[in-house]
Specification:
By secondary structure, this protein is of the alpha/beta class. The strands form 4 sheets. Strands 8-7-6-9-12-13 form a 6-stranded mixed beta sheet, sandwiched between helices. A 3-stranded antiparallel beta sheet has the order 3-5-4. The longest helix has 21 residues. It is flat, with a radius of gyration of 30 Å. It starts with 17 loop residues before the first helix and ends in an 8-residue tail after the last helix.
Length: about 425
């Protein structure tokens, strides 16, 4: 038997952190783009070439491969010609793409370009071969939501969360408060020690009053008034509608504000699904009009050349929350612009992008008042700081007992998650 020995070529995939790579590719996988927010037809940033370039950037500047590995394979001490190193790098990128497909993070249609080119050469009438595009799967978006949640909580110094703790006490199973006398309707979570102590004390006082000694072998007679129940912290449930502004201004002025907002929305969705199973979350996009979208589509929505119809978004959110039977009902609104559109009675859209239009503002505040009457709190996270806009947002907060946060895309996640887990529950007394 003959053996053939070849030069060992290390596989860089052995040192590759796939989870870290997916995090580095999150901006590409959740890119906002233009077009209809429910239409992913404009996917110029979802080509395989764009994915190839993003992986190349992550390999050399993203820290997904150890520096010593990069130096060994592509540095001054690397063996082989420059063309061989390029071929090795291209092979590595293709292996990464194949692993992403096998792991279920992306899907790509079959490459029909060779067949199209063959037919074009033979006069079959086929056009020029087009670029192959990929689709982001639900598994990838769920993973990116988990990573966003972990990164946001980690940056805030929180590694775990509980339920929505409030200032109220209830007679639950987990005891954390002082015992209280039993009242009709309380959960029968009897505090045995306090109950027996009450019975003994009452029997002793009765013996003193009648000058009769208490016999130790007579047992303990527990009366209704002796009953004590243990108290636990009351944990509320919450119904939330997340309103995302997808107007054109969210990607203008040299800054992408919509992709960080989507990342926060996905993190919040993952948080509620895993840590607060009794809560509900709905997502509403508002632009020229407004509509509810499935949570699984959060990572795929895109901005477009739209105005900001805040009133219609609030109206859709209020109708959703009015159907929810929860202790707390709230709207989390993420926006960067002033209300500039209004849906009129005949269904037409009135638009005015210049200043704060009195008609638009008046109708928007009327909807805020309707939310306040329904007991719905509005927390606004504003990504802009215009003077007139600040005054408008603060007035919204005052009308509906909500809060207004003026933040940036970089700190948005910390504010939203901390508010959801802690601050908002303090309004329950």
């Amino acid at each position: 038997m003959k053996y053939k020995y070849t030069k060992y070529v290390p596989n860089l995939l052995d040192d590759l952190d796939m989870d870290e790579l997916m995090s580095k590719l999150s901006d590409l996988l959740m890119s906002s783009g233009f077009g209809n927010p429910r239409d992913t037809g404009d996917d110029s940033d979802r080509t395989m070439q764009a994915l190839h370039d993003a992986i190349l950037e992550a390999l050399f500047n993203g820290g997904v491969l150890p520096n010593d590995t990069l130096e060994k394979m592509f540095g001054d001490q690397a063996e082989g010609s420059e063309q061989e190193m390029r071929d090795q790098l291209e092979q590595l990128i293709q292996q990464i793409i194949e692993r992403m497909k096998e792991s279920g993070y992306i899907t790509a249609p079959p490459n029909l370009d060779p067949e199209k080119a063959r037919r074009a050469q033979s006069g079959g009438g086929e056009g020029e071969p087009g670029e192959v595009k990929f689709e982001v799967t639900d598994k990838a978006l769920d993973f990116l939501g988990y990573r966003a949640l972990r990164d946001l909580l980690g940056s805030s110094g929180h590694s775990s969360t509980g339920r929505h703790d409030t200032r109220d006490l209830s007679t639950g199973i987990e005891t954390s408060g002082a015992p209280k006398p039993y009242e009709f309707g309380d959960v029968m979570n009897i505090d045995a020690t306090a109950t027996i102590l009450n019975a003994v004390k009452r029997a002793s006082e009765a013996g003193v009053a009648t000058n009769l000694p208490v016999r130790p072998d007579s047992g303990i007679d527990i009366d209704y008034s002796d009953l004590m129940v243990a108290q636990g912290e009351y944990q509320s449930s919450c119904a939330t509608v997340l309103m995302l502004d997808c107007s054109h201004s969210m990607i203008l002025y040299g800054e992408d504000r919509f992709t960080p907002a989507k990342r926060v929305a996905m993190a919040l969705s993952h948080l509620i699904r895993t840590q607060y199973p009794g809560d509900t979350l709905h997502a509403v996009l508002f632009h020229d009009s407004a509509e509810e979208i499935p949570l699984r589509e959060l990572g795929r929505v895109r901005v477009g050349p739209y105005y900001t119809n805040t009133r219609e978004g609030l109206r859709v959110a209020r109708r959703i929350l009015e159907r929810q039977r929860k202790d707390m009902r709230q709207i989390i609104m993420i926006t960067d612009g002033k209300p500039s559109a209004l849906t009129q009675a005949d269904g037409s859209i009135y638009k005015n992008p210049f200043g704060l239009d009195p008609l638009v503002i008046g109708e928007t505040l009327s909807e805020v008042s309707a939310c306040a009457k329904a007991g719905i709190m509005i927390n606004t996270f504003m990504l802009a700081r215009d003077y007139d806009l600040v005054a408008f947002v603060r007035r919204v907060a005052q009308m509906c007992r909500g809060k207004a946060y003026f933040t940036t895309p970089y700190t948005l996640g910390e504010y939203v998650l901390m508010d959801y887990m802690d601050k908002k529950t303090k309004t329950i007394h």
